[in-house]
Design brief:
By secondary structure, the chain is mainly α. The chain is built from 5 helices and no strands. The chain has one domain. 1% of the residues are buried.
């Protein structure tokens, strides 16, 4: 039979308003304050590791590739050409303003 390990204790200092929120959540969820905190840690970890909302990962197409029906963006394809076109367009607009 596998012996169950006791969880490591953690001491947390909360402002009175945060402590009240923790107690309210524990009552609403019919669970312990420790369980509410564990759920909070899990939710924060999922939020930080989820690539969908991360702007850099969306740019390179990783987040889009994970969602069915959303076309994958390949930011590397034509990157240099897009930058060069944008730069040339900026030069052209600058010349027209100066009357060249």
């Amino acid at each position: 039979m596998k012996k169950r390990r006791v969880a490591d204790p953690v001491q947390v200092y909360l402002e009175p308003a945060d402590h009240a929120r923790l107690e309210r959540l524990a009552r609403q969820l019919d669970t312990t304050k420790s369980e509410v905190l564990r759920h909070g840690v899990d939710a924060l970890e999922r939020q930080l590791l989820d690539s969908a909302p991360h702007p850099a990962l969306r740019l390179i197409g990783l987040a889009a590739a994970e969602r069915p029906g959303v076309p994958t963006l390949d930011a590397g394809l034509g990157h240099d050409a897009a930058l060069a076109d944008a730069e040339e367009t900026a030069w052209t607009r600058g010349r027209r303003r100066r009357g060249c």
